[in-house]
Design brief:
Layout: E1 2-4, H1 7-20, E2 23-29, E3 32-38, E4 44-50, E5 53-55, E6 66-70, H2 71-78, E7 85-91, E8 95-102, E9 107-114, H3 122-134, E10 138-143, H4 144-154, E11 160-166, E12 169-176, E13 179-186, E14 189-192, E15 197-202, H5 203-209, E16 218-223, E17 229-236, E18 239-245
Antiparallel strand pairs: 1-5, 1-7, 2-3, 2-6, 3-4, 4-18, 7-8, 8-9, 10-14, 10-16, 11-12, 11-15, 12-13, 16-17, 17-18
Length: about 250
C-alpha cells in the first residue's frame, strides 16, 4: 500500500477535483499518484500529480496500478479525515482500497470502492493535449483570486467570456440584454510570440480551472493560438495540477 504523507492536502486535492469533473482515473506511478479527469461538457480536462507519498512495497507492474472511479465516492470517504489520521491507498484489479488509522481514537477503517470502465481513455487524451503545453506561444503568471472575482462579475451578463491578450494586458469582456462587461488586467508576459490572441470560453470552465487558488494563488497560464488555455498550479514540492480549457466553437 501507499502511505499518503499529507492526508489533509490529499483531501483538498480531491475536493478540488470534485468541482472539476464527474469521475477520475487514478494511476499509481513510481514517484507518486496521477489523477486524470474532465468535466461533463468536455470543455475542461485536468491532470493532477501528487508526490507526497511513501511506498510500502516494490511496484513491479506500474501499468496495472490504474483505476477509474467516481470523484464523489472517494470524496465521501475522505470527508471525516482529520490532521491526526493516517491514510493508506492501494489499487487492485477491480477496486480502490483505502485504509484509515485514527491514532487519537485507536480506530482502523478499511474502505473498498469498485472501479468503473473508462470509455474515454482520459490518460491518452491528456497526453495528446500536452503538445499544446510544450509549445505554448504565450506564458504569464496570474493572481487566481483577482481573475476569479472578475469572472464572477462577468457571469452576471453572460455564461460566455471573450478573452483577448495584447500589449501586456488580458482583456475580458462579454455582453447580453442586461448590458456590457469589460475588464483589463495588467500581466507580465514570460513568453509572447503572437501579435495578439483572442477566443471565447465558458466562464465556468475558466473559473473551475482556478480551483487550486486556495492552495496556491499564483497560477501559470499557457496559450497556443490553435489550442486550449492551460493553467498550471504548484500544489506542494513536486505536486502540481495542469488544466486544459477548450475554446468555444466559432470563437472570434
Amino acid at each position: 500500500m501507499i502511505k499518503i504523507k499529507d492526508p489533509k492536502l490529499f483531501k483538498q486535492i480531491i475536493e478540488s477535483a470534485y468541482k472539476l469533473g464527474v469521475y477520475i482515473q487514478i494511476s499509481i506511478v513510481p514517484n507518486g499518484i496521477a489523477l486524470y479527469g474532465m468535466n461533463e461538457s468536455k470543455t475542461l480536462f485536468f491532470k493532477i500529480f501528487f508526490s507526497e507519498v511513501d511506498f510500502e512495497e516494490e511496484l513491479c507492474d506500474i501499468e496495472s496500478k490504474v483505476i477509474n472511479i467516481y470523484i464523489k465516492d472517494i470524496r465521501s470517504q475522505l470527508e471525516e479525515i482529520t490532521i491526526d489520521d493516517e491514510l493508506f491507498l492501494d489499487i487492485d484489479d477491480i477496486s480502490l482500497n483505502l485504509k484509515f488509522i485514527s491514532n487519537s481514537e485507536e480506530i482502523i477503517t478499511n474502505s473498498k470502492l469498485i472501479c468503473l470502465e473508462d470509455p474515454l481513455n482520459l490518460k491518452d487524451q491528456l497526453e495528446n493535449l500536452d503538445k499544446y503545453n510544450k509549445k505554448a506561444e504565450i506564458e504569464f503568471m496570474i493572481n487566481g483570486e483577482t481573475i476569479l472575482r472578475t469572472l464572477n462579475s462577468a457571469k452576471y451578463y453572460s455564461d460566455e467570456i471573450r478573452v483577448k491578450i495584447i500589449n501586456n494586458y488580458i482583456i475580458l469582456k462579454n455582453h447580453s440584454s442586461l448590458g456590457n462587461f469589460k475588464s483589463r488586467i495588467k500581466i507580465n508576459l514570460d513568453t509572447f510570440t503572437l501579435n495578439k490572441f483572442k477566443n471565447r470560453y465558458l466562464c465556468d470552465s475558466i473559473i473551475n480551472a482556478l480551483v487550486f487558488h486556495k492552495i496556491n494563488n499564483t497560477i501559470k497560464v499557457k496559450i497556443k493560438e490553435d489550442g486550449p488555455i492551460i493553467t498550471e498550479t504548484e500544489i506542494s514540492n513536486d505536486s502540481f495540477s495542469i488544466i486544459f480549457i477548450a475554446p468555444l466553437v466559432g470563437g472570434e
